Give the backbone structure.
Amino acid sequence: MKVIKSTEQLKGLNETVVPLQQSSVAKSNSDEWLLATYGRTFHFASRFLDPEIRDEVVTLYAFFRTLDDLVDIPVEGRSMEDIRIDLDTWKRWFTTGHTLPAPREPLGSRLAAVLDEHCVPTTIFHDFLEGMVFDLEPQQIRDFSELHSYCYRVAGTVGLAMSHILGASSAEALVAAENLGIAMQLTNILRDVGGDLAHGRIYLPREDLERFGCPPDHLAELYLRQSCDDRFRALMRFEVARAHHYYVRGMSGIWLLPRDCRFPILVASRLYRRILTIIEHRDYDVLCSRASTSFPEKVREAAIAFMLERLWSRGESCINTEVEAFLEN
């Protein structure tokens, strides 16, 4: 596996000098399109993975994205019962050791090859499917315990599956991978508060809304006015701080990955965490626009990640926040 080996390579980073690795299997082009279209942050970071591992990661992403779209963007004319049947069929496919044709081919065949190669536990996907069932008829989440369970199902599971594919299956590495997935899902929820309100969904815990005086009708009013108030900013400040906490716990496990996988995952993690910083810089206004990283920000985070990974590989085992702050400045 290969990552960027010199600062000269990083200095010339742009869309043309860091081309997508050519897939060894042409039929995965649709999977690549899904990642490039819907997972732009990870698409950027995945460019630094070894081509073979990258193909497997792209296949894994295609599965998770396909199921997510099945629930969130259903095909016109399909009923909720039709979607439930699809989810149940996928569950049987995993339960039977994916020996039968999958509900969607050739995605199922490609995914089966990846899971067999890396011995990814079936329970991970059962838990993910439970999260999809919840999203079919989203209910008000009562407290952070329920939100944590939801984030684990829809994103912590992704972190676990990724960790297995990247070759890190120790208990410590898996706990960190789960926490990193949860951190990223919390980030998605926070930057999509406005969009979710537009679709009648609220993923922030009712307990937190009550604590900061932001009941659902108040959030709806703020969204209609396209403005924030101090109560909303206090709520978001609290939620963002909690998400940062999960990044700290999750990113500590990156150094448990095989050496050549650390850099791309560090890039992806820093880019996603950067979204929280953007939200902070916008004074927590997630109602008028959706926070995202620009290409220059992606390059900057990749440069910082490159230097942190170099320090670690040369024996700097205690890379603390002061070192990171120095590199960022």
The radius of gyration is 20 Å. The chain has two domains: 29-137, 141-152+162-329. The longest helix spans residues 144-166.
